[in-house]
């Protein structure tokens, strides 16, 4: 079964109920992590996935609440006595991801984050289509954070994940008519969330990356009044969708 699971729906804020940004994609036998914010490696265990099962991590951008658990993730692969990594790990991200990985290895030491039995493969993505384990994805630059959203089609349905972003024409085009969108809702107002829903007509929009409490019924009513035909949901950690 293929699944999309919100591992972390929070931000840099430290909260009991939310970890920082991350989405787990399980596409047949391939596990892909989109962003890796603080607390996410523990959420993986709660989702029933061991760290060594993740062979692909896509980073939207380099804010700490989207990348900070890379260190415990890579260290667990290199040093865990229970489940050490034996397969390569692939890291995808905007230009700068190679500098990030090289900097971490230089800081912590060559053997602290990887071992000679496998490699850390780094893939710098600009825009356009690219392949992750034979699956096709589309990257789009969403200002102002240099954020790379992730969009893909699976079993004739289209999905989009935004990481950090704001309300603008690029965001509208990226989310237009998708079947399920997970959006950053922390940097935009309630009115802009409604505007996105109305403008894109995404069939289901899940609000994530939450700095504040959102009220789904209020947002849904406002959007419906303006002609939105889909569903607005407020995300929570470990919320899952069958793809």
Question: Can you put this structure into words, describing what you see?
Answer:
With 243 residues, the chain is α/β, with parallel strands linked by helices. It has one domain: Ribonuclease Z/Hydroxyacylglutathione hydrolase-like (Metallo-beta-lactamase, Chain A). 27% of the residues lie in helices and 30% in strands. It contains eight helices and 14 strands. The chain has helices at residues 40-46, 64-67, 70-79, 97-108, 110-113, 169-175, 190-200, 216-225; strands at 3-8, 22-27, 30-34, 56-58, 89-93, 120-124, 128-132, 135-142, 147-154, 157-161, 180-184, 204-208, 231-234, 240-242. The strands form two sheets. The protein has a seven-stranded mixed sheet with strand order 6-5-4-3-2-1-14. Helix 8 links the parallel strand 12 and strand 13 (231-234). Helix 7 (190-200) packs across helix 8 (216-225). The model has no long low-confidence stretch (mean pLDDT 95).
Key descriptive features of the protein:
seven-stranded mixed β-sheet; 243 residues; globular; alpha/beta; Metallo-beta-lactamase, Chain A
Q: Biggest sheet, open or closed, and with what strands and sense?
A: 7 strands, mixed
The oligomeric state is single chain
Portion in beta strands: 25-35%
Q: At the first level of CATH, what is the class?
A: Alpha Beta
Q: What count of domains describes the coordinates? A: 1
* Full CATH superfamily name: Ribonuclease Z/Hydroxyacylglutathione hydrolase-like
Helix content: 25-40%
| Residue runs with pLDDT of under 50 for 5 or more positions | none
Find the structural class using helix and strand composition. alpha/beta
Mean of residue pLDDT values: 95
Ends distance = 8 Å
Rg over C-alpha atoms, rounded to the nearest angstrom: 17 Å
Return the string of H and E elements: EEEHEHHEHHEEEEEHEHEHEE
How many E-type strands? Answer: 14
CATH structural fold name? Metallo-beta-lactamase, Chain A
């Amino acid at each position: 079964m293929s699944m999309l699971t919100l591992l972390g729906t929070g931000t840099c804020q430290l909260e009991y109920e939310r970890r920082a940004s991350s989405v787990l994609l399980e596409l047949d036998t391939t596990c892909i992590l989109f962003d890796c914010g603080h607390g996410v490696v523990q959420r993986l265990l709660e989702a029933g996935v061991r760290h060594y099962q993740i062979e692909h991590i896509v980073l939207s951008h380099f804010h700490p609440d989207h990348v900070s658990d890379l260190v415990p993730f890579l260290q667990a692969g290199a040093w865990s006595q229970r489940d050490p990594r034996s397969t390569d790990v692939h890291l995808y991200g905007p230009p700068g991801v190679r500098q990030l990985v090289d900097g971490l290895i230089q800081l912590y030491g060559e053997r602290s984050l990887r071992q000679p039995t496998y490699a850390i493969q780094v893939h710098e993505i600009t825009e356009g289509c690219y392949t992750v384990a034979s699956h096709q994805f589309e990257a789009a630059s969403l200002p102002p954070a240099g954020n790379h959203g992730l969009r893909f089609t699976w079993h004739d349905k289209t999905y989009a994940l935004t990481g950090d972003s704001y309300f603008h024409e690029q965001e509208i085009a990226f989310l237009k008519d998708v079947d399920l969108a997970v959006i950053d809702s922390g940097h935009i107002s309630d009115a802009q969330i409604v505007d996105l829903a109305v403008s894109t007509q995404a069939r289901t929009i899940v609000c994530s990356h939450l700095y504040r409490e959102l009220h789904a019924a209020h947002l849904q009513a406002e959007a419906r009044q303006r002609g939105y035909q889909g569903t607005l949901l407020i995300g929570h950690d470990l919320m899952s969708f069958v793809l």
